Amino acid sequence: MRAIEIRAFGLDNLVLAERPDPRPGDLRMGQVLVRMRAASLNYRDLLTVQGKYNPKLKLPLIPCSDGVGEVVELGEGVTRVRVGDRVCPIFAQQWLAGEPTREKARVTLGGPLDGTLAELMAVDQEALVKVPDHLTDEEAASLPCAAVTAWNALTAAGLKAGDTVLVQGTGGVSLFALQFAKALGARVIATSSSDQKLARVREMGAAETINYRETPNWGARVKELTGGVGVDLVVEVGGAGTLDQSLRAVRFGGAISLIGNLAGIDAQVRLTLIFMQNIRVLGIFVGHRESFEAMNRAIAVHQLHPVVDRVFPLEEARSAFELMEAGGHFGKICLALSASR
Known about the structure:
alpha/beta
């Protein structure tokens, strides 16, 4: 089978390699052989390739956490899926429900485990989720990390109809948060540095938009747009570079779902902005299988379609990572691994 390998850190060291096909006899009790159809990129995957996420990872490594495929072979004792089912492997392979543990958080695809940029994967049946029928392969491939993270960012904060949500930028998590918030009956305010991208999020249902380059004090602008109150929830993907403004944008007693570090990890924060306003700061680490399945039910009911920016063939994986590095995408960057539906 073909697979992309990180032989050494850096985009120059991504290699299209040949690996032995997993054989039916290689499947352990409860395992499933999945022929992968598509994969999608997350910022974590770029950091992993660059050696910035965990420079101690054992190489060679197949990168990427998100993908979708078709079940083609069942090991002994498999009952959760059937041959022909379209499935996504979950990110944290042992986190099925409940609270995470350090041990569960370490067993993740795309590092330290081999990831989804391979034509075949052997996966435990418990670590698979069936995907909504109406999605294309590329759309389904974007679900395991970005979509589940966005879903949990909203549900963990207790978002309800009539609330107002602030989303940052137009990456995968933020666009999923926009779609889910609208489906739940919430109002959305979105930020970006691109007026063209802001026009697109307005088409997707954002009630208000802010160009943060033109309005660096955008937290105050959010307060203006909410009648001086602030938003109920901020989906915080920027990290150190945006957290201070997020704290100024959220209402008294509101919540910040802290997800990413696109703008840095070391923040100097005025703690009074948190405890004097009774703000909840929630750390969001993707989510478990049970939340993935609940999200998929919502996607199916509302017939939501993930936003896919571009699709690359497997042999152009480096170009896909370069596009993510440049930050010119709107939504998800995907790779086709086999014939898509």
